[in-house]
Design goal:
The chain is α+β, with helices and mostly antiparallel strands. It is built from five helices and four strands; from the N terminus they run ααβαβββαα. The chain has a four-stranded mixed sheet. Strand 3 and strand 4 form a beta hairpin. The N and C termini lie far apart (about 115 Å). The N terminus is likely disordered.
Length: about 240
Amino acid sequence: MEKFKFAIKRYKNDQLRVINDKADREEEFELAKIKNEANNKNEDVFKRMEDNIKVAEKIFKSRKTNECRMSEMKVRFDMVEKIEEDAKAKLKIQKADLPTYRALLKQLIKQGLIKLLEEDVEIRCLREDEALVREVMGGCEREFNEECEVKTKIVVSTQNYLVAADLGGVTLTSLKGRIVCDNTLRARLSYCLQLLLPEIRELLFHDSDLYLAQRKKEKKEADLQRRRAVAENQKH
């Protein structure tokens, strides 16, 4: 009987030890699992933080780059605008030279007549220039009629004068204002500036990063168009 009790007790103890060992292993496994998940979670958190920092750095760098470009573009715009204002001031001074301005008005009127090629033409000018315009328009009309098949008649508008911002020059209209040739000094100056803008930029901003990048882009586009044209010619 004692041996039987001892065997039962030992079996019981063995089972308890097995259960305890299994419980310890399961506990260690769960602890390791929890720790691993925590580590992975921390790694994910740190990875997201690192990615967010990189994105923020890129955004900051891009914003600063754009700010620099906008600042440089504003400087360029202001400098070109300053050139335009200086040119306007010089035009006002040159207008005071009446022989030179008279010859210029004659050229502007004749050019407008050639562009319009109409029989009835109305001229608008500054009120202060009306006498000078009347002085030269007769010769312009006569020379135009001698050189062209169209015979034109010029009148000066006394109801609708140019404004001071036009600087001077003339506007020629026909067909009750439906056809207009703007030969004011303001319009001619704007046209000249547009033609000379590439040279002005080259002169003022030839060492600018933004200008160099723009020139590189323009050259790349021109090369691409040239290659496309060559490819089209080869097809035909």
